[in-house]
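note to self — DONT lose this again. spent like an hour looking for the file last time. sequence + predicted structure for the chain T wanted, 207 res
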Amino acid sequence: MLTTYAVIAAAFGYLFGSVPFGLLLTRAAGLGDVRSIGSGNIGTTNVLRTGRKGLAAATLLLDAGKGAVAALVFDRWGVEYAIIAGIAAVLGHCFPLWLRFRGGKGVATGLGVLFGLAWPVGLAACAAWLAVAFALRYSSLAALVAFALAPVAALILAGPERTPIGLAALLIAAIVFVRHRGNIRRLLRGEETKIGAKPAGPPPAAG
């Protein structure tokens, strides 16, 4: 029974997480394929580069909602199923079947999962993201700091389920860091684009 529920949770999480809201919203707004601008990504930061803040906000909420819903739907059967569904949602967002496994970087969906697993942990990660983003104007750095702190926040704020949720936060952080490896290289070189700036030239290579 554990295996059956785990497979169902993983399948639901992946399929729900793989819905590319950023791409769907920009196309519906007549803006074409968001992957053709900026970073070539389908997430909130790249949608913001279209100049449509409302679409970016909607993308953020919907992508976060994917992770939160996936975790909350399966939490009734136990935290382990919520974790499986949540991590699968992050993987679905990052590697969607419909887009040849080239999706987003998992930030909003990952934050949504943290909220679904333990809202104080999600709130702490969001606060860290906002603090760094407002202070330094780097979305990627804000995400890296937020997810680096999330496992620690889980161990402090997640109550009796702190160990499994802390491990889940650590795994999500690993996914986010891998998806940001190109951003990390650009940050180290001082070439990363700040929030609100339009990067020059074609989209950087994936990675």
